[in-house]
Amino acid sequence: MPVETSESFRSGFVTLVGRPNAGKSTLVNAIMGKKIAITSNTAQTTRHRFRAVLTREGFQLILVDTPGLHKPHDALGEELNTSALKALEDVDVVAFLVDASKPVGTGDEWVAAQLSRARSKKVLVLSKIDLVDDAELDRQRFAAARLGDWDAVVELSSTTGEHVQDFIDTVVALLPEGPSWFPADMETDQPIDVVVAEFIREKILRSFRDEVPHAIGVRVEEMGYDRKKDLHRIYAVVYVERDSQKGIIIGRQGAAIKQVGTEARLDLEQLLGTRVFLDLSVKVKKNWRRDANQIRRFGYGEGA
Ligand SMILES: Nc1nc2c(ncn2[C@@H]2O[C@H](COP(=O)(O)OP(=O)(O)OP(=O)(O)O)[C@@H](O)[C@H]2O)c(=O)[nH]1
């Protein structure tokens, strides 16, 4: 008996990989049309196997924003590496981002070599094309294409939005037919307090780039919604490793933490669509980065 076939629907998992700073988080946000993943100039900002879900007519694309594939320097690096490699398994499409404005180097080669182990479809993405001229783009295209076997190549800018839609179309064409895995209105599978903590951490990384590179963790202790006032009250703690870092983050008469709080609050109000009251405090927890269990407790890494 003939089975009634519904319109074909494509769905699948897509992972973005590339050297730190290649532009993965920015591309997630460009695809989603809003800020979901945090970005900064500091390498290795992304610590979660973060998922964003884009559902449109005819497809559902689930994005896994992997941490930069790194040679580990400490326990945190090791966790990132394992989860990054895990993310390569069992995805339908791997998009490999190469920064068009930086010479292709051993870092790119190393990531490409890891990729060759994955059975998934592979898309080469030349990112940040707004930063280069045609001649430079030609050179990059040639150098990057040689790094592996690609099912497709897309050149885009997440900042200007140029060719971001082409990227979505290209990836969707490579996805298998399949069902919706998540509800259509769901954009992320991260608990909201984790997203909130990441937004706060981003502001701190931006403000204190050189002083406290990665020595901070942020945890939301309490978060509640006051319906009458249409206000979220958020109490968060910033953990640092040393007293000196605590001093830097708090600043003279609390000026620095106040500034961070103001910037984070504006982003959070956009994210949550309500007014936000944000209480930030800073605590010292020695060597939290070296202790893998602590990393888990802070919500980073696998099984968080
Ligand atoms: N001009 C320009 N800058 C970009 C573009 N995409 C990303 N950037 C910038 O490049 C920097 C790194 O971008 P991210 O998206 O954080 O990079 P990432 O690959 O997620 O970095 P990690 O989290 O370290 O792995 C940020 O300062 C972005 O603003 C782009 O298309 N054009």
From TrEMBL:
Main location group? cytoplasm
Q: Where is this region: G1?
A: 18-25
**Domain called KH type-2: residue spans:** 208-286
The GO molecular function terms of this record are: GTP binding; GTPase activity; ribosomal small subunit binding; small ribosomal subunit rRNA binding
* Membrane topology summary: Peripheral membrane protein
An annotated GO cellular component? cytosol
All copies of the Era-type G domain together span 10-177
Positions of the UniProt region annotated as G2: 44-48
Q: Which residues bind GTP?
A: 18-25, 65-69, 127-130
Q: What does this protein do?
A: An essential GTPase that binds both GDP and GTP, with rapid nucleotide exchange. Plays a role in 16S rRNA processing and 30S ribosomal subunit biogenesis and possibly also in cell cycle regulation and energy metabolism.
Family according to the record:
Belongs to the TRAFAC class TrmE-Era-EngA-EngB-Septin-like GTPase superfamily. Era GTPase family.
**What name has this protein been given in UniProt?**
GTPase Era
**What species is given as this protein's source?**
Rubneribacter badeniensis
The gene behind this protein is era
